[in-house]
Give the backbone structure.
Amino acid sequence: MEVKTIYDKLLAYQAILTEKFKYLEKKEELPKILSSKIEVLNRLKKSYLSKYNQFKKLEESIFAHQKMMGELNIHQKKLEERTKVVKGQRKYEAVFKEIDGTKQKEDEYRFQLLQDQRVIDDLKHALEKDEMSIKQQEDEINKEQERINAELSKIKGELDSLLKKEENLVAEVDENLKYKFEKIVKNKDGVGIVSISKGHCNGCYLLLPPEFINQIRKSEDVLFCPNCSRILYFNENVDDIFPVDYENEEESDDDYFDSKDD
């Protein structure tokens, strides 16, 4: 294949690659939007679980205190029955002292129950609120997932279409050259092949030696800019081939590029 034909194909291929990389980037970014929403949902669920565990512990505590109060109440009634049959002032006073202790213990349990009930009511309200937030977030995620799936399906269609164009366009281009060119286009903001203008590379504006420009003009081989690595081609429409005054036209290309490295 003639080098000029390769240039034409690469110029067209460059436009395809630019579109292709744009869709691939979008394809990669779309799941990230969903992952941030899932992260919020996971935090909500974690907070909900912590409150729920606290709620269950308080429920168990309230049940235990209610049970103890019931047992104390039964014991208190038994003590009151004993006062009717107990003989002796000291024994009578001892029974009443035990009744007072039972009542005091019952009051302590009742106070703790009131405290726990306030907390459990607040937790119940917080859990209901969290359940609504979780449901809302799950609905948003489902809608976002549907939107992303539709976008991904559309992107797949576009990529498949570009792939067909790519296969038809560069089927005969050397695989190594294609691989290099794709990397250059990706790393150089979508520009992998540029013309020479006024003795300079139009990609990085490096001043090129005349002999090197002549090699490009002959189109015998695909040549790359020694500075930015872009493929260079000669534009025959430019009238002033060498408008730049070179101080030493006898200088070889090797010497020229060596001096650039220094």
Residues 43 and 134 are 10 Å apart (CA to CA).
